[in-house]
Design a protein that fits this description.
The chain has strands spanning about 5-10, 25, 40-45, 55, 65-70, 75-80. The chain is mostly beta strands. The strands form two sheets. The protein has a three-stranded antiparallel β-sheet with strand order 1-3-2, with no helix packed on it. A three-stranded antiparallel β-sheet has the order 4-5-6, with no helix packed on it. A hairpin with a 7-residue loop joins strand 4 and strand 5 (about 65-70). The protein is globular. This is Endonuclease/exonuclease/phosphatase domain-containing protein. InterPro entries: Endo/exonu/phosph_ase_sf (IPR036691).
Length: about 80
């Protein structure tokens, strides 16, 4: 069982979205739908994690996706770099 998946070169459909099951939130790079470049990095966050415990980090690149996880006074940043 995983809580966060970092995926590179994801399948992107004709709507500009990747496919996943209902168990995951998809985190796209900032401005994903407005970029002329192909998205090459996404992250999946398991819905078991409370949405109060994580946030996407805004980075203007189709090659970088990141999330910030927090628990109490601790924070960790996870990056997916293509």
């Amino acid at each position: 069982n995983f809580d966060i998946l970092a995926i590179q070169e994801p399948y992107i459909d004709f709507l500009g979205l990747t496919r996943t099951t209902h168990h995951w939130y998809v985190v796209y790079p900032t401005g994903h739908h407005n970029m002329a470049q192909r998205t090459r990095s996404v992250m999946l966050v398991n819905k078991r994690l409370s949405t109060n415990s994580w946030l996407p980090i805004s980075l203007p690149s189709p090659d970088i996706t990141a999330v910030s996880l927090s628990s109490g006074n601790s924070k960790i940043h996870i990056f997916n770099l293509y």
